Amino acid sequence: VARIIDGRAEAERVRAEVGRTVAQRKAAGLRPPGLVTILVGDDPASQVYVGRKQRESRALGFVSEQLTLPTSTTQAQLEGRIRECGARADLDGILVQLPLPPGLDADAAVLAIDPAKDVDGLHPCNQGALFLGLPGLRPCTPLGCMRLLDTTGVEVRGARAVVIGRSALVGKPVAMLLLARDATVVMCHSRTTDLAAQVAAADIVVAAAGRPGLVRGAWVKPGAVVIDVGMNRVEGKLVGDVEFAEAAERAAHITPVPGGVGPMTVAMLLRNTLEACEARERGEGKG
Ligand code: NAD
To answer: Residues of the chain with pLDDT > 70: what percent?
Structure first.
């Protein structure tokens, strides 16, 4: 039976590491990392997400600001506010909470973020840097997946990894991170015709499709690592994309939902913000 990968404990370790560095900075007379979260409109789920980011960043000693804009905000006004944050010396991280209300263009909004402060790693400069293997800010959930994978001690180099889902937020960047670690990566998506066979051949499975029960436990290769990114509400319960109980009988390591990848995302956002702060001090990412 699989070892359950404890995302809550690992997220706590990441927060502790970041918190220690922030405290050392303070002791050395350096300023704390600064994060701004930008929320447009009043979507309740988005309010919960930015609230969590605010709470956790403040708890570690960050300077954290919440910018709440009305639903009536125009694209030009939103981009103007994002650029203002980009120009401020005390801010290292700019997070635009997605999705934006209808009528606002998320891609254009992301383009207005200074790439050096793009702590979600969504700006084409950062996505391109990931593609090219250059330094840059990486998306938070994929970083969380890699960190959880590393807790297993399983060798990534040469492993056959199957990523299910090809979004810019999760699937594509996680595949690039696995490739950068010398895994042999197969990307599966909604048009993949042999998902069962692909999963059956995989040493590492990352499921990020948003389809409950998509990955059948019986498909999982004995001894594989299963990272389940899916967050689906089924009859009021949060479940992943993987048939957990059946998969846990075959995998060597598996993430639960909830308590797996979910808690890692905000932790990695905090780490990205600290890294953006340190990189800006070194004078990187300018121009
Ligand atoms: P998305 O809807 O943008 O992308 C889903 C991807 O899954 C698409 O590329 C699609 O091709 C693929 N897909 C859909 N149906 C499929 C099928 N039947 N077979 C194979 N592939 C299929 O979603 P996303 O933003 O990438 O998020 C994916 C899941 O991860 C969602 O459940 C989301 O809630 C969750 N998520 C969790 C976290 C977190 O844990 N912190 C963060 C982001 C997303």
So the answer is: 99
- What totals of helices (H) and strands (E) does the chain contain, helices first? 10, 11
Vertex 81: Cα angle to 75 and 85 (nearest 5):
140
Nearest CA to ligand 1 atom 3: 167
Ligand 1 atom nearest to CA at 262: 40
Active-site residue 54, yes or no?
A: no
Contact of 86 with 115, CB cutoff 8 Å: no
Torsion of CA 37, 265, 206, 43, to 10 degrees: -50
Question: Residue whose CA is closest, atom 32 of ligand 1?
Answer: 210
Q: Whole-angstrom Cα distance, residue 17 to residue 272?
A: 12
Give per-residue pLDDT as tens, 94-109. Answer: 999 999 999 999 999 9
- The reply to whether 53 belongs to the active site is yes
**Contacts (Cβ under 8 Å, ≥6 apart) of 24:** none
Q: How far is the CA of 20 from the centre of ligand 1 (A)?
A: 34
Whether 120 is catalytic: yes
Question: pTM to 2 decimals?
Answer: 0.97
Sequence letter at residue 135: P
211 neighbors 243 (Cβ within 8 angstroms): no
Nearest in space to 220 (alpha carbons), one of 237, 196, 240: 196
Locate 86 and state its tokens. Answer: 């980009």
Ligand 1 center from residue 70 Cα (angstroms) = 28
Write down the catalytic residue from 97, 117, 172, 241.
97
Distances (CA, A) of 33 to 23, 47, 54, 273: 11, 22, 13, 7
